[in-house]
Amino acid sequence: MDSNNTSKKFKEQLIKNVKKEVKQIMEEAVTRKFVHEESGSITSLCAAVEACLSQGLRRRALGLFKTSSTTALLHKMAKNFEPASIISQKVQEMENIDPNKPIILRRDSMASPRICPSCILNRRGSLTWLLFSNEKSVVVSPFRRSSSLTPARICTCTLNRRRSLTWLLFGNDNSDSCATRAASVNSTLTSSITLPNVHPPPLTKKNSAGSGLGPTSITLPKYLWIRLALFEKLLAVIIDHLVQNCSKYYEKDSLVADPDYGSILSSLLVGPCALDYSRTKSHDQFWTDPPADELVQRHRISSGYHTSPPCRTPINYRRNLHATSNDDNQRQTPISAKDYVESLHQNNRVTLLYGKNNVLVLPKDVTEPMAGYLSLHQTANSLIIKWTPNQLMNCHSPGTNQNDHPEIDASDKSQYWDYAMNVNVDEIVYVHCHQQGNDNGGTIVLVAQDGVQQPPIHFPQGGHLLAFLTCLENGLLPHGQLDPPLWPQRGKGKVFPKLRRKGRSQVQDISNDLSSNTEESRDYVFQIISKARHEEFLSRGEEILDSKIWSMPSAANNMLNKVRGHLESSSTNSSTSTSSSLDPVASPLLINNQTTSKDTGDSLQILCETMKKQIISRAFYGWLAYCRHLTTVRTHLSGLVNTVIIDSSDAETGLTKEKWYSFKNDSNLVNDDTKLEIFRLTYFGGVQHDIRKEVWPFLLGHYKFGSTVEEQNAVDLHCKQEYETTMSEWMAVEAIIRQKDRETMAANLAKLSSESTSGGDAPPPTPNTSKVLSQELSNDVFEDNINFSSDEDNPPVVDDTQLEHNVEVCDNPTSQPNINEHLENIPKEIDCDKKSLSSDEGLGKDEVTEKDMTIKKNTSEDTSLYCPTSVIVTTNISQEKSMENSNDENDKIDNKDNNNTSKLAVDDNEGAGGSNHEQRSACISPASSQGGIYPVELVENFGLNVHRIDKDVQRCDRNYPYFTLENLDKLRNIICTYVWDHLEMGYMQGMCDLVAPLLVILDDETLSYSCFCLLMERMSANFPHSGGAMDTHFANMRSLVQILDSEMFELMHENGDFTHFYFCYRWFLLDFKRELLYDDVFTVWETIWAAKEMSSSHFVLFFALALVETYRDIILANHMDFTDIIKFFNEMAEHHDAKTVLSLARNLVLQLQTLIENK
Amino acid sequence: MATRKKVLLKVIILGDSSVGKTSLMNQYVNKKFTNQYKATIGADFLTKEVMVDDRIVTMQIWDTAGQERFQSLGVAFYRGADCCVLVFDVTSPGSFKSLDGWRDEFLIQASPSDPDHFPFVVLGNKVDLDNRAVSTKRAQQWCQSKNGLPYFETSAKEAVNVEQAFKTIARNALAQESDVELYNEFPDQIKLDGGSSDNRSSGGDNCAC
């Protein structure tokens, strides 16, 4: 029993593993666009399947003694199962590629130590495959020692899946053999390889697993057959076959033979077998399109050191002035910790050239040198050196899912972000190298153009300093170089000996205090010469204000006494290259400088003078641009915010219950004077949830501040009456519509069945039948009209008595005044009918439906009457009769027209106009529907709207518990009422979303309706065809982005479409209702309402801007275009941190206010 | 196995509101169905990598709002489409009737170089429901009248025919993509017989309910 239990548990565990892996792979398929064949999750899945299949295998019976593999099982199956034989054949083919060893042995030698770490890793994350693919491409070849750039790149490419490669590196702090950029990763696994060169990935298809790492080894992946079967989508079939025939291959108590688990196993694999696996990817695809949540996740890691974009200076006027190539560089210059994280994940724009852990750096204000990760990254146009303290890197252990700990004690880590280095090599002029003793490591000091030194970087022993310099030099090519070059005899394979040359090379006597304790002979200085810098400068033409040129002398000054020789050459360089293009004033000076370049003192002086002028002019232009810019801001954007800045002090708590009641109790009503305070509290802190129901009507203007309770009651009563009146009006029409729907549907069904029974070629409907149909339809409309039109003493709300009354009347189809018009309208009408027809038996119409049913029963007696012919008869009768009576009836009915129909029923009933108005006052009852004759257009139009409303109401927030059928009904009523009153506007998708939060809070139909109407005063203009407010929003957004985030603006400008701001469409249309969770929607909405009084009546713009700004770094870093952004924000919906965004939005308003005020 | 140029196929899904456009897209891309979808506002898209005749292509499938008046927004989304999927609800003749309008709208907005041969694929969705109101025959007739558009009866809910339909969509879109170059060489080939196709489409109208 015990053993039974444990085996059961074991099986459970096995199945659980498979489930987990299946889930993983399915998720991968969803979040990415494909599952790559080398994905780690495939390996994990295969392992899990293998484990299941191995359990209880009848090895002896099958002759599988030596091996734990199930491959032999496959070959066995292949004899009598077609899919298995396909796979078996493929496996054999692939094994034959490798001439060395029988593959099975190798695959099964899993106990080899090298595999172990990867197995462990595999359990932690899905890095296994990465490591294997990495091994495969690195083959030790003692003959090729020169490290050239290209193969190294290939290697780094294969290394890069976008998962946290570097975390892995940091998890293995003890590995100390990183010699070159490529080796940095390899060494974690293969410490024996110190200087691997790179062999291009072999072309063989499956060569990526590696346990036997021989000189020419090409190894097959683990679980080859399972993997292949999965790719061929046959795995589920094969396993199913195994399960069916388990007795043949498996012990009785095995998992496969288990009646439950066996079938579970095979059915679990159906999903993965339906996926597409591919490996013909360009390397780019390894890192393209991470889903939004991962982008945010990555970003979050660095959020401890948030540069908080909103807090940047509001205007980068200078950048606007000199926007172009200069800006690109600046964008690449990482300013936030995010970039560390971002670029440590290699992506398609940034290549990792070098990485070394445990490099010591002594940051400012720190007494002990700290260990950290040094890396060299190449972007499109610059090199970046990064150093990140281990404390930061280790805060996420490789196995930890970062999702679980988004908020890692930011305060704790933030100081380390301050220590982290991020240096753009473009800005570095000198690299000082100091070596202590024989191979005791080395120290590098980077000196920037402005003379500022970066903290010394101390490399551990083992030639890492040299390796770093090698990579740096390679990275600089082709546009730059180290001077003196490290290895003038490059290509001769003398990488190491070069170091000896330093003694002879231009020895720099560094009297720097930093270097005082080092051996002079082992110190030297490299200058970084960037050709690109000069070319760039040339291309810039008259732009004399280039920062790189003018900042040169300051560096020069600092270094004057130390590195004179270099300076000489550099100033010459710069002057020669600049002189040709500089403006007339500057160039003679520089040419002069060139000629007298021997006299360094003079040349420097002249240079400095030039610089001085340039600095002054630069400042002047900057100021000028700033002034112009502010003018633009004031002209275009001052309307967006209120001029008065409201103090936020003590308002963060928001409007609490206590405060609200204290306001109320003071004067027993919400005083007009307290209005501002209430708005202020709401704006800065929101309203406490319990009292929203009370506060919202005030915020929205349903109740006036300062109104008495009686007044409020009066308002409510008035609204209620109006609401009910309108409702009874449209409900009457709706009854007609329902009736019509039924008829049309019946006709359709009849047609459908006739079509299907007619077999062969169903003839297109003849004119006859269509005529019949239209008559039927118009007739229905008609009869319903009578119901109400001939009914004089209706009670306010349509009820059963009325119905009975109606029934009586409609048995007498004589009062049909305008049958002729109707008949004329038939062709048009029937078209519309079909359009508006819906089979929807939606919600929210039980009342009506009941009535409908009654009417239907009485008018058409029986459903059998749907038969067209019988309807024709009715029509004919009624037509004749109406001919007789039409004149009399006309007048009679017209008189019964009341206020509503006189407005809406612009019917063909002549002479109705005048008499109607007299009737209106007499009609106190809200049942205006009683006598309505509804013009066809009206019915059509409203019918169309009702059908749409039904569709959308049903779909509205189905997952939100409040929306039970009953409440959906309310929702529907509100919208129908609104649409009835605004038929010219009609129903528009999105209205549901606007009503829903109101209804949730107010939980009262009438009140919600009234508030919705008030809300729509602002919102309706956003909807298409009704105001074009959306375009204004977009334009304003554009201006705001331009003013408040020029960097973002440039990105958007690059991608032309982007400026359309379509991604904001839903935001503005629904006041962010779809972007946020319900609780947040409430807060944001009330803030928007309060903002009108407090700061800006366009607060939505600022909230939208805040949303964009929240993710600006992600958007910029990933260089998102129009579609990327749409996708990003759609995926991010309901994942925003509304509180932060909201305070950011308030902040942005404040920024703009300050900007405008500051004259 | 040669690495060919990566192909991006833009597919637009059109059709009346609540015919199941979002569901179809999600069923195809994510293999999921939920009855929790709300009315689409604005536009969204999903991408999926598929293998079409040994070529890997990325399908960018755009889901649009169903209410016509939102379509004026769609111009930006329509442009550059390689295939247009017209969806109707087999239980709603109205949505079937609208196909003409959607097709015309698309042709006007996207203005493809060869409107007569632009690949449309017609999907009759919700075949899992039993209150069917548009017969297969009628749908097929309509498709026939439009130069024989491919027609599929699908159920996004039960994943019936969805995969097959989108396979066709991908294939036709890909064909369109490669055709474009051909047609560009002979711009004169653009046929001006829009009138005749209109006639045909009105003929299609007659057969509808």
Automatic annotation (TrEMBL), chain A:
It holds the Pfam family RUN. SUPFAM superfamilies: RUN domain-like, Ypt/Rab-GAP domain of gyp1p. Keywords: GTPase activation. GO terms for molecular function: GTPase activator activity. One of its GO terms (cellular component) is cytoplasmic vesicle. Residues 566-586, 752-771, 877-926 are annotated as: Disordered. Residues 36-284 form the RUN domain. Residues 569-581 have a biased composition (Low complexity). Residues 686-1092 form the Rab-GAP TBC domain. Signal peptide: none annotated. Belongs to the RUTBC family. This is Small G protein signaling modulator 1. It comes from Aphis gossypii (Cotton aphid).
From TrEMBL, chain B:
Keywords: GTP-binding, Lipoprotein, Nucleotide-binding, Prenylation. Gene3D superfamilies: P-loop containing nucleotide triphosphate hydrolases (3.40.50.300). GO terms for cellular component: late endosome membrane; lysosome; phagocytic vesicle. Pfam families: Ras. The keyword Plastid does not apply. InterPro entries: P-loop_NTPase (IPR027417), Small_GTP-bd (IPR005225), Small_GTPase (IPR001806). One of its GO terms (molecular function) is GTPase activity. One of its GO terms (biological process) is endosome to lysosome transport. This is Ras-related protein Rab-7a. The lineage of its organism: Eukaryota, Metazoa, Ecdysozoa, Arthropoda, Hexapoda.
